[in-house]
Amino acid sequence: MKFIVAAxxxxxxxxxxxxxxxxxxxxxxxxxxxxxxxxxxxxYFLTWPPDSNMTAADMEALAETIPGPSIDAIxxxxxxxxxxxxxxxxxxxxxxxxxxxxxxxxxxDGGVIGKYSKAQPENAPAxxxxxxxxxxxxxxxIFETPLGRWAVMIxxxxxxxxxxxxxxxxxxxxxxxxxxxxxxxxESIAMMTVSAASQSLAYVISPNPVGWxxxxxxxxxxxxxxxxxxxxxxxxxxxxxxxxxGATAIAKALTFSEDIAYAAIDPEAPAxxxxxDAGIYPFWRRPDLYGELLNPxxxxxxxxxxKHDVPTAxxxx
Length: 317
Hints:
Layout: E1 3-9, H1 17-33, E2 38-40, H2 56-62, H3 69-81, E3 84-86, E4 90-93, E5 99-106, E6 112-117, E7 123-124, E8 127-128, E9 134-135, E10 143-145, E11 148-152, H4 162-169, E12 174-176, H5 186-200, E13 203-206, E14 210-216, H6 220-223, E15 233-238, E16 242-245, E17 248-252, E18 259-265, H7 269-280
Parallel strand pairs: 1-2, 2-3, 5-9, 11-12, 12-13
Antiparallel strand pairs: 1-18, 3-5, 4-5, 5-6, 7-8, 10-11, 13-16, 14-15, 16-17
């Protein structure tokens, strides 16, 4: 069954969950009034990400359980509108006592269909996840819904081809990729979304916010600072929200403006695309050549030497 998806690009108020939740609920109303059946939000859409200046008390104030107050409010809106919501991500207080960066999928009955925790948290000063005790998720689930087979990857998860490729192999029709990248990376979001859609042959939906984060610590690599770590600055977010299928961006939100991108999704299209490619490109995948990806002796590049049984190589705060 075809349906319309809405990728929301909200303006985020810094660490004001109440204001951001109110904005999210109003965007669900707007999107469903225009026929959207599925509404997706960015990573950290209720708070902005945690940074390297935050304390354990700050993290405790931002974190919630799933279900919990914010997700419950969105669930009520889903029941009211008959919509599905892919609720970006929040800092989740998990049952095992750990914090994770988690996205919840909520159905039109208000129930949580499932949740996914970011597999590749990062430690840049502006998004200081392991350093603030955020642990990685260790599963790549497929969620069976009446609208097709869905998957989720969060932000840095789509910078490597492995995760979208695995989701394609598992038969995902739609991959939601909540993202929170600053204005410098607006064009990169579209590029990564199209790349993930090409690798998976699924629809990929990447909502990203707009707005300003005040006094954010940043790192020299991304912002061309002379010192190893730049001073804090006010960091702009410009959107870049993109919906892609195959090698094409089929919808984009306006840049530097609160907006919603809409696209019609045909859940049968990915299977048709994969069947077509199987006939045209018989050597499209060569797993017989990929053994190095699992070689325990490979210590570089890309941080594969890091122990993954702790939040960060030096331990969480």
